[in-house]
Structure formats: structure tokens, C-alpha cells
Amino acid sequence: MQAQLIALDWGTTSLRAYKLAEGGQVLEQRSLASGIMQLPKAPRIIGGRECTDGFELAFEEACGDWLDAQPQLPVIACGMVGSAQGWCEAAYRDTPANVATLGTSLQTVRSLRGVDVHIVPGVIERSRLPNVMRGEETQVLGVLQNLPGEASADLLIGLPGSHSKWVEVADGCIVHFDTFMTGEVFAVLSEHSILGRTQQRGGSFEGDAFDRGVQVALSADGETGPLSTLFSARSLGLTGELSACAQADYLSGLLIGHELSALANVQRRRRNSVHLPSIILIGNTQLCARYRRALDACGFTRVTLAEQATERGLWQLALAAGLVSSTASR
Amino acid sequence: MQAQLIALDWGTTSLRAYKLAEGGQVLEQRSLASGIMQLPKAPRIIGGRECTDGFELAFEEACGDWLDAQPQLPVIACGMVGSAQGWCEAAYRDTPANVATLGTSLQTVRSLRGVDVHIVPGVIERSRLPNVMRGEETQVLGVLQNLPGEASADLLIGLPGSHSKWVEVADGCIVHFDTFMTGEVFAVLSEHSILGRTQQRGGSFEGDAFDRGVQVALSADGETGPLSTLFSARSLGLTGELSACAQADYLSGLLIGHELSALANVQRRRRNSVHLPSIILIGNTQLCARYRRALDACGFTRVTLAEQATERGLWQLALAAGLVSSTASR
């Protein structure tokens, strides 16, 4: 089957490359650590000249051989590659942002090998506390493509990660979203705070400890907020009530529990209803499993997982941009 | 004036030494970086033998010359020096803990030079989420000594720091306290997270940015909690609404605001009253000034600062232990 598109999901710490055939079918995929904050440095010859530009180097690494074989393949990319610190800035689109038409606003950068890379713009919500995303808008599109239109009214799309996003959609538009820095806070506390000193990591997932953390966040004790309950990851260790190998998952549950507890409160207020929306989760499988577990404890009873949202979204955007042709008529 | 006591406030990252005369008057004081997590390593001769023990080395550094001059001076110490990772563990006293009588439970360790160091026990509250303190109990005593007994009913003693403590007292006893890891969370986020990358630090205090952070925490936007509002320290920068040199103080205000907002809610619930207690703050002057500013914004209208709480508390404990004699009759 002939490749029709190279699709790149190029974030802060990773770069995933997909070679897609008609209908967006994945022929091959690769995962590299060449996110925009950790680009390769070793010079190489590109287009006959020595090159030291990190973006060019990462691009060659990710799909140079695919382009050698098929130089006319179009290339599309989403994520932090379009940020001010990226390869070429693709200005944010404002909410309400119609994700299906983002493909008509791609920003182009010409690579040294002469191939154009089409970069998807991020989305900004200019509220009192502004919110921004880059990459998630593409995943949201990938999910919406497979949903009946009316399903989105009672839906919240969750994208767990270093900075998790919770996205509300209406009529194919991103109308509102919240960001929680839960993943990054967990990482810096585990690596650099006193809480990490007594954590023994690397064992299997301690589900009971995780659930306990979630329950603490939801309990009356949780009303002091995460800045306070965090300390229990240490003090329960001091009193022998939490073993060293359970502390990391307890902390994970505690932070995710605080995130989802706050999210549930805000959702009830925004919807003026005690009922919570359906959830579709997109992201890393293990992380989504944690969120699913905690969502259930927080009263979100309808939770499903989306697969291949990124590659599907990128394919749709390439279609909208005319980089590939539709197979709908076949 | 003759010295009567050496008093040490020996924490995780610092060691403060006081030479006290009768009535607890401070004759001399020193501040060293030799907290229990960063003890000196260079060997020295102590008591005729080469010594490499970090606690002995720090002790010599802090007050060896004072003891050379007056070998019979008693020594008392509070703080993390009495923890399991300290010089000698002084078991916690349970709440309700009468702070005036902690002096009768000192733990003794004999130093190489033959001088006994008397270590003050910490306090533990064995609630569902246990809470512990070491050092703060001594400061609370130092404050209570100067207060009329009935004042403590409507009082909350605040000890801002890496792990701030909020202490409720009744009849001279610590009956309840909360811990917030606000200071440490601020430090690790500023040093190790994406928020630090755009912070330009080292300038003067940006009071407006700090106040803005406090207000965000108190606003409807703050209902998503600190894990979410944190991201605004970045997104307001991206939209040009918060300058690089204002971001650290904004983040500081945001975190302290979330701490105090949660504290106010919990206090109202515990006291079953809309009225908030009086506050006495103990600690670093600049940090207390930040807390005072934020407390005012959060509705705590009666706030005072305590001076010399540590040295006064240590003197009182030494009196209770019979290490020094009272001057009350003079």
C-alpha cells in the first residue's frame, strides 16, 4: 500500500512520526526522544551541506529515509513544534475554534531538503486566566470524527499528561478548556522535593495506595487542598502507615484525585447540574488507566478511551488542507 | 553579663546558635548552613581524636569556642536534629501537647567533647492524615509565654516556611495543626518546572503581581485549585499580560493565596463561625510580610508578628528542665 502522508506529533519531550496510507491507515510509526526541548545536536549533511539546526536534524532522523524513498510525500505536524520555541510559530486560533477547519490555517516551513512541513496552529482561550493547547486540538478532532454530532453536548474530552487538558466541545468547536499541571507537579515533587527522598520507585503499580490517595483528596481532609494533603505522603510514612514502595502511587492518586475533584465541582457549576458529563480519554494507556480509576471514584461513570486520535486528527487536517485526497467516495 | 545557656535551632537546612544570659537575653547569635541535610564533612580533631561525624563537626562549628570558654554551659536544641535522620531521635509527643512541659522530656546525646546536648521532642497529631512538627513547638511556647492565657481561644499561630504550620492552642496545649508544603512547592516549581523557564528572578518584590496571584486564588477561577491555576503563571506570560520579572511573585501570591483560602474555609468549618481567628506569625521577616499581605486579602484582619520566639521558647524549656535557674524572683 502506497504512503500518502507523513504525520508528526512533535511535542516538548517526544517526536512521534507516522507514515500513513489512504484513509489514514498507519503503515509505519516511530517514537523518538527529539522533542523541541531536547533536539539532537550532532551535525549531519543535509542537502549537501553540514547542518547543525536541531529541528532539521530531528526531522531527518524521524522521516528522512521515508522522504528519500518518496520525495513528494506531504508532511504535516502538530504540537509544540508550532510554538514560539518551535521550528516555526503557528499562531493560536481563538476559541470557539472549529477543529475541522484548522487544516485551512497551516503554517509552512521549508526544510533544508526542500520539503514543506505544514504545522497545525494551537488553540487559545482568552479568558481571565488564558489557556493554551498545542497538539491536543488535533487529538480532539481525531475523536470528534468518530462521534455522532449530538454526542458532544454532554461530553468532556480528557487528555492526561504533564499538563492535562479537559476540553468542552460544541458543534465541532472547542469552546472551553482547563489545564492542570498535575503530571509535571508529580514529577518535580518526586524528583526534587522531600517527598521523593522516601519514595521507593520502580516496582509494580500499587493500586490500593493510588485509590487511597484519591479517597483522601475526596474526603473532608482533602478540603485543605493539595498543598496540604501532599504532606501526608511523608507523614503516613513516618507513622508506618504507608510503605516506601507505595508512596509514589499514593501521591499520584492524591494529585489526580484533587484534579478530578476540582474538575467535578467546576463542571457541576458550569452545567448547573448535579450530573457529570461523559468522558472520552486520550493519551498514554497506563496514565489513562489511572485517570479512569480515579474518574470512577469521583462520580464520572461514563468513561471511554479513544485510540489513534493523533494520527486520525492529522489525517483529517491534511485532507482539509488538500495535502491528501479523500477516500470517502470509494 | 555571664552566659547561662547555649540554645540551638537546628533544622533541615540551617543551624542557628544563641548564647543566652539570665532571663534568656541574647548575648550572641550565629547562623550556619549546617542543617541536618547539609552537615560539614571536613574532618577535625575533637577531644584529641580525628572526627568525621557531621553532627559533631557542625556542633563544634556552631559553639565549640563558646564551650571552650565556658565548658559547663548547658546546651539545648530543637528542630530536625531530633528526627530519625537527626543526631539523636527525640520521640514525638502526642497532641494535645502541653508545650511548657516539653522541657521535662528532653532527649540527651553526649557529644565527643563530653557536653550533653538536650534535644526537644517534636509533636505529632495522630489524625487520619497525621501531622508532625519539630522546632515549631518551641516557637509556639515562645509566643505563648508572652500571651495572657485567655487570648489563645480565638488564636491561630502561623509559622510560614518550606512547610508552613498553622497551630491551634488551648490551655497551653497544641491541640491541632495543619501543614502546607507551599514554600517547598514554590521552590521546586521555580527551579525545576516549565514555570521557572520564563521567570526572571532577583529583582525587587513585585507587590502588584503577588497581590494578583492572591486574588486569583480567591476568585471563582481559583476553584479549579492550585494544580490548575499554576498554569496561568505561564499562559499570562504567553499573552503578554505578566512580565518575566513578575512571574515569580505572581506564583508566590497564587500559592500562598490557595493556602490561606483553604485555611480560612477549614477554620470557619472547624469553628462553625464566619469569624476568623486572630493570627500571630512567627518566622522569616520577608516571608511573614508576604503572608501578612495575603492574610489581609483573605479576611484575617487581626495579624501580629512575634519576635524571638525560638530563643524564648528554648530558654523556657531549659528552665523547665532545670538546666538554668529562674530569674522570676528578681
Automatic annotation (TrEMBL), chains A, B:
One Pfam family recorded for the sequence: DGOK
Gene3D superfamilies: 2-keto-3-deoxy-galactonokinase, C-terminal domain, 2-keto-3-deoxy-galactonokinase, substrate binding domain
Highest taxon above the source species: Bacteria
Official protein name in the record: 2-dehydro-3-deoxygalactonokinase
Organism of derivation: Pseudomonas azerbaijanorientalis
